[in-house]
Automatic annotation (TrEMBL), chain A:
<dbReference type="InterPro" id="IPR002939">
    <property type="entry name" value="DnaJ_C"/>
</dbReference>
<dbReference type="InterPro" id="IPR036869">
    <property type="entry name" value="J_dom_sf"/>
</dbReference>
<dbReference type="GO" id="GO:0051082">
    <property type="term" value="F:unfolded protein binding"/>
</dbReference>
<dbReference type="Pfam" id="PF01556">
    <property type="entry name" value="DnaJ_C"/>
</dbReference>
<dbReference type="GO" id="GO:0005737">
    <property type="term" value="C:cytoplasm"/>
</dbReference>
<dbReference type="InterPro" id="IPR008971">
    <property type="entry name" value="HSP40/DnaJ_pept-bd"/>
</dbReference>
<protein>
    <submittedName>
        <fullName>DnaJ domain-containing protein</fullName>
    </submittedName>
</protein>
<keyword id="KW-0143">Chaperone</keyword>
<dbReference type="InterPro" id="IPR001623">
    <property type="entry name" value="DnaJ_domain"/>
</dbReference>
UniProtKB/TrEMBL annotation, chain B:
<dbReference type="Pfam" id="PF13591">
    <property type="entry name" value="MerR_2"/>
</dbReference>
<protein>
    <submittedName>
        <fullName>Chaperone-modulator protein CbpM</fullName>
    </submittedName>
</protein>
Length: 297, 98
């Protein structure tokens, strides 16, 4: 078993007073609280900090821990001393256990024991929420997906038109209840995965369409990708860079009907011009009286 | 799997989230959650349990009072929304500039 350096975890000296311990814990708890932090490792760090604080805030537990710390051999491993009874709270006493957000480490359990006071009677399980990445393509029709939550694999049907940030509820798939209590529910929070071609704005989609300068000038038909395959779009003559062409109903499906797809024109220059092209551009420049910076005069 | 959404009374909600009725009442009065119906008594969409549980964790773990929790949840929600929006705008900008 690994010996836990609770003082180190909280970043305090072993002779720190209660106030310093509390203040160190508060600061780290704010930093790593899984509801606040975007750190991938936040949950583990928070549990560690929380365990350290639970061991050190109680004078009795802290005294037990300090005794073990003295006993501890140099090196990382740790075995409780022979005949060690461990700390047990008095009958009926003890704090309500730090809920059931995953138990503390074996190290903690071996010193302080498990059986903290619990309320009598059935207790319902907790509702959980996890994020579920979803591809845009999977929103077009009802889609069956397998998701892993902890050590379980669940089959879920994602209804067509499910949007970003929406929640899907799976009844009874949260944490189990205790003493005959009902299990909690599991909520999947949908996160649409960024797409290589399409951007999402509500139920509308945006696709950037590169066009040659002469396509912008003369107009013409351009083939544009949609979630349902390519379609032909008319670019009006004399289109500005950034012009948005609306393709009604080609966006994401939703409960109130489908959104639109906006094709945004992006005028792109050829990588290189040969002499003939240069000459043609020059001819155009001489002919055109256009001054794009007229407003600066 | 049943995805139908049921409504909970204040007492049912309190039991589901293992908090006293008075605490849940305070959470509602601070606007952390909103009842779906108020008349003749409060009814809640079942999905609020996740919000209440998160509020209770912040209250307990960070020793915040409930109005602090209400503010924190609002700011967290805003912050997440802005992060997502910022990431989306950056992607769109990159398409125009690349």
């Amino acid at each position: 078993m690994e010996f836990k350096d609770y003082y180190g975890i909280l970043g305090v000296e072993p002779d720190a007073d209660d106030k310093a311990i509390k203040s160190a814990y508060r600061k780290l708890a704010r930093q790593y609280h899984p509801d606040v932090s975007s750190d991938d490792d936040a949950e583990r760090k928070f549990k560690e900090v929380s365990e350290a604080y639970h061991a050190l805030k109680d004078p009795e537990k802290r005294a037990e821990y300090d005794r073990l710390r003295q006993y501890r051999q140099s090196g990382g491993g740790f075995e409780p001393p022979p005949g060690w009874q461990g700390f047990r709270p008095g009958a009926g006493g003890g704090e309500a256990r730090f809920e059931d957000d995953g138990a503390f480490s074996d190290f903690f359990e071996s010193i302080f024991g498990g059986g903290f006071g619990r309320r009598a009677g059935p207790r319902p399980g907790r509702d959980l929420e996890v994020e579920m990445p979803l591809f845009l393509e999977d929103t077009v029709a009802d889609t069956r997906k397998q998701i892993r939550v902890g050590d379980r694999t669940l089959n879920v049907t994602i209804p067509a038109g499910t949007g970003d940030n929406e929640r899907i509820r799976l009844k009874g798939q949260g944490t189990p209840g205790a003493d005959g209590g009902e299990p909690g529910d599991l909520y999947l929070r949908v996160r649409l995965v960024p797409h290589p071609l399409f951007d999402v704005d509500g139920h509308d989609l945006i696709v950037t369409v590169p066009v040659a300068p002469w396509e912008a000038a003369l107009g013409g038909k351009v083939s544009v990708p949609t979630l349902g395959g390519r379609i032909s779009v008319t670019v009006p003559a004399n289109s500005q860079n950034g012009r948005r062409l609306r393709l009604r109903g080609k966006g994401l499906s939703g409960k109130k009907g489908a959104g639109d797809l906006y094709a945004v024109l992006k005028v792109v220059m050829p990588d290189r011009n040969d002499e003939r092209s240069q000459a043609l551009w020059r001819q155009l420049a001489e002919h055109s009286g256009f001054d794009p910076r007229a407003d600066w005069e | 799997m049943n995805n139908s959404v049921r409504r909970l009374t204040l007492t049912e909600l309190s039991r589901r989230v293992a908090l006293p009725v008075a605490t849940v009442t305070e959470i509602v009065e601070l606007g952390i959650i909103e009842p779906e119906a108020r008349d003749p008594h409060w009814l809640f969409d079942e999905t609020v349990t996740v919000i209440v549980t998160r509020a209770a964790r912040l209250h307990r773990d960070l020793a915040m009072d409930w109005s602090g929790v209400a503010l924190a949840l609002e700011l967290i929600e805003d912050n997440q929304r802005l992060r997502r929006e910022n990431a989306a705008l950056r992607r769109r900008l990159a398409r125009l500039l690349e």
